[in-house]
Amino acid sequence: MIRARPVRADRPADLEPAFLRMGLPTPAREYLLEKMPALHVLLTGLEREQGRFLAGLFSASEAPGREEYPSWVAGDLRVRPGTGLLSGRKDQFERVVAEAKARPELAGLAAALARVLEASAPPAPLVLGAKTFTFGARTHVMGVVNVTPDSFSDGGRYFGTEAAVAHGLRLAEAGADVLDVGGESTRPGSPTVSAEEEAARIVPVLEGLRARTDVPLSVDTTKAAVAREALKAGAVLVNDISGFHFDAELPRVTAEAGAACCLMHIQGTPQTMQKDPHYEDVVDEVLAFLEEGVERAVAAGVPRERVLVDPGIGFGKTLGHNLFLLRRLDELRVLGLPLLLGTSRKSFLGKLAGGKPADERLAATLGSVAAMAAAGNADFVRVHDVAEVKDALAVADAMRAALDGGALYQPGKVRV
Predict the structure, then answer these.
(1) Annotated catalytic residue: which of 5, 228, 382, 400?
(2) CB within 10 Å: which end of the chain, N or C, has fewer?
(3) DSSP state string for 35-74
(4) Reading across the β-sheet that carries 307-310, which strands appear in turn?
């Protein structure tokens, strides 16, 4: 399968301050922000004809300096056939897409490159309950409510219904945008829980929260039977760590309730996932897994715009895999869907912080979410410490959007 992944892409928001400083009028700025951003795109899964097409476009270009199309570098045919790197401006990529669309045999290439061009735009707004989430301006917070006796993060502190409801209300008061209620631990090696027991744990909590807060509720489950009861109790989002790969009925249950879903990547199961995880290309395999989950959701009747994705940090990944995925989150933007990120208190942060236990990983958690927010690489973060994370995000999101560089950066105030 052909896949195009943005290795690096200029963000229009990063170019805007330069154009303001140059004193360009609004129409010129808007035109340049639409056409000028540069892209470096890794292509994999190319067939020979597609590779020849890309090489031929550049070599046959008649524009001065061969600037009509992006530059093309093919991978080593002996060890990495079907790979290459396209580098150029957005308008040059648009010409490649137009040329490829004119040839039916290149439809896959045209679609893959078109997805990269569309990835710079924020995902479509998402409606959860009475709340509409828009993306691109700030990072939203999902607060974790564990109704389990063996959670890695809180050791069962909120296992009882009253304690869990009170904890969820505190998270809502602290500014959580969504509350994620789960009744089965998914820490490495954790035992499974029956659907009956899981539902008995979370349904009273969901009902208690729904009666006392308007914050949208999510159910963290892999089981259709549990999701069905949770959705009746007030949940509006199904958060599935298996990405719709464990229970074939879960997509249909989600669709019938009109709920949204968050599909996460996992290698293996919670019982096996940390037993020597291995990848040939972790980003590519995460993308393929998530694409398959999205296809299952859409086939069951869940509108694509009601799907979120999660790379599954810590779920069947080594420390190196986790860090590489965090570094390359931009590549997941080709899915065109809101991205949820869960790093809170996870063991890889403890390792990086010198072996700290879960209850001492707040500073490391704040570092991870602030870094992702400042880069614009997460739409939601799933966290335990909502108040502290909200403060960190307020700083990171403000930095990303900052435009007050002085009088010469203000539109309409052109000076020489």
Answers:
(1) 382
(2) C
(3) H--EEEEEEES--HHHHHHHHHHHHH--SGGG-SS-EEEE
(4) 307-310, 260-264, 237-240, 217-220, 178-182, 140-146, 380-383, 340-341
Token reading at 391? 């403060």
Q: Which residues pair with residue 89 across a beta bridge?
A: 38
Q: Which residues of 226-265 are buried (b: 16+ CB within 10 A; e: fewer)?
A: bbbbbbebbbbbbbbbbbbbebeebbbbbbebebbbbbbb
A 10 A CB-CB count for 394 gives 15
Question: Mind listing the pLDDT tens digit for each residue in 248-286?
Answer: 999 999 999 999 999 999 999 998 899 999 999 999 999
**Both structure tokens of 47:** 């067939």
CB 24 within 8 A of CB 32: yes
What DSSP designation does 123 have? Answer: P
Residue 393 predicted with pLDDT over 90: yes
341 forms beta bridges with 381
- Write out pLDDT tens, residues 280-334: 999 999 999 999 999 999 999 999 999 999 999 999 999 999 999 999 999 999 9
Q: Which of the residues 5, 228, 333, 346 is marked catalytic? A: 346
Provide the 3-class DSSP secondary structure of residue 195: helix
pLDDT category, 188, cuts 50, 70, 90?
confident
Whether the pTM exceeds 0.85: the reply is yes
> How many Cα atoms occupy the beta-carbon half-sphere of 68 within 13 Å?
15
Q: Let me know if 346 is a catalytic residue.
A: yes
> Whose CA is closest to 134, among 165, 198, 100, 177?
177
